Protein 1
Amino acid sequence: MRKSGRGEMLYRLPHIRPGQVVGLLGGSFDPPHAGHAHISREALRRFDLDQVWWVVSPGNPLKSRGPAPMAQRIAACEALIGHPRIHVTDFEAQAGTRYTAETLATLQSACPAVRFVWLMGADNLAQLDQWQDWHDIVARVPLGVLARPGQRISARMSKAARIYRGQRIPGRQSRALAFSDAPAWCFVNVPMADISSTEIRARGDWRGLSKS
Ligand SMILES: Nc1ncnc2c1ncn2[C@@H]1O[C@H](COP(=O)(O)OP(=O)(O)OP(=O)(O)O)[C@@H](O)[C@H]1O
Ligand SMILES: O=C(O)c1ccc[n+]([C@@H]2O[C@H](COP(=O)([O-])O)[C@@H](O)[C@H]2O)c1
């Protein structure tokens, strides 16, 4: 990250044109897996996005276990993706943000002409009310929620889903989400990929250098 002549922060970000729509998939990616790639491809199509950015988190504020080093996770994401409209960013490390509300505020001021949608699996919607300033997140960007095995009911019954039930866009209108004013959210019933980073770590297939 550098400063421009006028003192603005200049971040290294994937190339994007004014007016385009970016879906942000925040995650630990410890490690990245086919489920991340699958929901990103589905999100591009179902929410009519121009790009998806994988926002690799320096560390989820709700997880006590530290992830593998950032450089290792970024390299694994880049090796896995192989899609021209899905990109990886270490934006949170550059900006020094950890909480999503802060990340979104910083990103929106860095890219005022870009439309952002926050993407998440259904498990994250179920926990959203525990995130810092979560009402601010919902007020800032539309939320695109993708089905995840075993999480459909908990997501639908979640506090966030109940409080914002009037702002839900039906799945059949998912292509309207990005151009809807926040608060707006949409749950899409995509084919599900039964895979998680936890399972891969448990199998010992990821030589993360993380501390437990
Ligand atoms: N198989 C999947 N189906 C749907 N959503 C998923 C899937 N895997 C990950 N996601 C979503 O991707 C985002 C980033 O997930 P994350 O990097 O934490 O992977 P994870 O597999 O959930 O990891 P862990 O098992 O360590 O919690 C989250 O919004 C999560 O809900
Ligand atoms: O802002 C918060 O309080 C917050 C709490 C939990 C998770 N998040 C974000 O949610 C995304 C998914 O996290 P994870 O670890 O489940 O992959 C990632 O971008 C985290 O930074 C954010």
Note: The mean pLDDT is 93.
Protein 2
Amino acid sequence: SNYYELSSSLMFFFSPVFIVDGAVAPVLMSSFPPGSLSDTASKAMSPLSFRKFNLFNQSCGVKDYIQQYKAHMAERSQAIEAGLTLTSHYVDVQVIRREILRLGKNTNKCLDMELIITGDIDRQKNSVGHSQVRGDDKCKRYILLFGKAGMGKTTLIKKLCLDWSKDRTPQFDFVFVLDGKQLTLTEPVYSLQTLLLSVSSFASPCTDLDGVYAQILAASKRVLIIFDGFEELRDYEMLLQTLEKELVTSLQKDSKLQSFTIRQLFSAILQRVLLPGCTLLLVTRPRGAASQLLRRADSLLELSGFTTTHIETYLSKYFPDSELRDAAVDHLKSSSYLNLLCWNPGLCHLVCTVLERSKCSEALPRTLTGLCHQVISEKELLSQLSSLAWEGVKSNKSNSSILPAEQALSTKLREFGLRTGLLVSQRLRTKTDKRGREGQDGEGGGKEDKNESGGVEDGEEKVKEMDINAILPFQTSAKARRKPQRGEFELTQRFAVGLLFQSRTELNRLHSYTETVFRDMVASKQALVTKHLEGLSFSDLSPAQVLELCNYVHETGFTHEESCGETGSRMLNHLAANLPERLTFRGVPLSPPETFIVQNALKRGGAEVRSFCLDLEDSGIQIRGLRDLVGLSNINTYRACIADVITLWEQLKQSGEDEFLQGAVSKFKIHPLKATQVCHIEHLEKLVSIHVRKKLSASQSDSFLADGVPAVRELLKLEFELGPENGPLVLPKLWDLLPGLQNLQHLDLEKSKIGDKGAEKLADALVTLSSLEILNLSQNCIGDEGVKKLALTFKELPKLHCLSLYSNVISDEGAESLAAVLPHMASLTELDVKYNKMTDVGAQILGASLKNCTKMKTLRMWNQCIPYGMFERLQQQDSPRAL
Ligand SMILES: Nc1ncnc2c1ncn2[C@@H]1O[C@H](COP(=O)(O)OP(=O)(O)OP(=O)(O)O)[C@@H](O)[C@H]1O
């Protein structure tokens, strides 16, 4: 199973596991006397002595402790939620291996932006499995596991702990969990020993502290340390700032000295100053800057949420009684949106709570707001949460939290808020903000704070229009568009806005104002939000903002009733009428519930007789979501991950949905195509093969493919941008597929390390591309041999008018081959052979051939070996076009 795949992959890499979580630590700490055993001996241990120190040679005291620690951990890690345990309710989720796009200087704004968003099929292929991990001999000791709020990070950690405690991960002698919230303990009174054995989350009392600690140090490779409770990657990143030399020395000299802060110890572990051989598992939401962290990470894993099967399993565990379960499943079917929300395990739990409470008879909530509303049905709690949400939205400082510092919150509300991401931990956050304002945080606060309008303390009634503009995430300045908005904050905003549009009766329950005051207040706020949303200029919004807007409108639109309210309906119509015709979500992760929301908005567009061209590339949309969107009657054309589209076609063929399939094939577009990853070419190869064979599967031919795949026929421009490292890996595939792209007009293969061998293959492939007009072969290490082969093909390309061989290694011999074919290239107007290896001899020959090329406008051929006088001579004589 996937969970076991992860755990076994962890097992493969790790040894002892320590998890640090704040709650119990201070209490336990006081019961431990400061240690006295020196660890110098263990530090000096040779690999041989290290082996001697393995589990089997542990002293009875250490063994006993480990058993006791495991028993304690088994007990403490069991509970997922009140009444739910791992043993009874855990669903084995998928963990996906992710890759980074690039690590450049300016790309570290947000992890989301740095990760390659793969299609659904590739994502499934990347789920971590035994075989993949075992086959990988690279030591993975720095693992980053991320997932958005509620995706099950903490639950997975608990499961890992439980498994270790049940001896299912024998490669670790110790597992420790460390909680980021402990960074608030600022006194310099801790040592590594107290951190692991007293402060860590599942620490249990120990009678042989020194013996256990010595064992940990002796076999640090058999230790797993899990960091949890960090709100975002940036919080880790801050711990990676270089430690002062004296601190490093003192930590290494005596890590048992109780004179360090938690921060220093965390930093030292993360920077491999302490326990250098241990395995680190860093868990967080995927937000914040993290370039340093990403550079260190050996492996990036992501929790990908519940699949349909997982949801079914969860429901069957949640409702063990089969009658209740069937009723719940049926009831859930009545709300597609809630069904899709269950993709998030945290929300799945909330949905089950609602199903359970409603006894499967009441109408289900239709929005996230409605769901939260029903879960915390107590008036007091909801009113508190709604005002928090509103306050948070109003005081949107540096993406800050909505959890006011001094506000007394009930445990229940705090738990709910934190779990859903509506609230974020204030203590950590305050630090980040402060740092941001002091300018250490680069991006952070400063400027934006000034943008926020005042009047926050004046109470809700005085929210001004200006405030609304500032608080909703639709600023259209270039900076605001670039800034990643997505995180827990958007949920807060959605909730605040959604609450305004909840049914009047529901809202009435929340306040203590008189009926009229309340009505006016809600009405004026509703009007402000509506006016703002309706006043937006859609063309100025980024794809992420358009999606956010769809989310807002959904929250405002639907209450408990079947149809949406009057204002909501108006907003939805307005949205549908104004969505850009070329609607792109390229690069914006589209979750299943969001796909539903977009589908809803587009459907409305149908009522207004509007049709759309939809771009879903790099959105990670699931195939079932793709199916829903492509199936809409008012979609003119669509783009999406080619592999996913092919899978959709295959599914449609299998289910016999011929008409749908025909539409899905004819509406699909891939022009213009820029291949930046290896998989892009692999997918294209598959599509071209369908096009050439005129059938989807190996067996029968398909009548709707009689003319091949329209998307391939209509592909006019292909840019191959895989770079010198990845490019050569898929060039052979490219040579195979090129002949299938008969109508290609523009082929850009710059910087792909083609070389002479590749040039020969390319020459063969090019022969069939009779429509080719522009060919860029710059910077490709092509020499005389290669150009000789290519030159023969160039003659066969009647429409080629622009050819670049800039910066290759062509010398005079190659120039001669080119000169021989130039007069036969009927359409050529521009040739670039600058920065090659030819001398004045080659230049002279090429220049001379121009006499017979009447159409040629420019021939660029400068390089250091050609004396400048040569050009002057050529220009004065007969070739003014040679540069
Ligand atoms: N694999 C799972 N099986 C069963 N329930 C799960 C699973 N994962 C998560 N849940 C449910 O979702 C809830 C939220 O999960 P969890 O607290 O682990 O999320 P998280 O990713 O740590 O969120 P946050 O970022 O807010 O801390 C859990 O309390 C549990 O009810």
Note: Residues 839 and 865 are 5 Å apart (CA to CA).
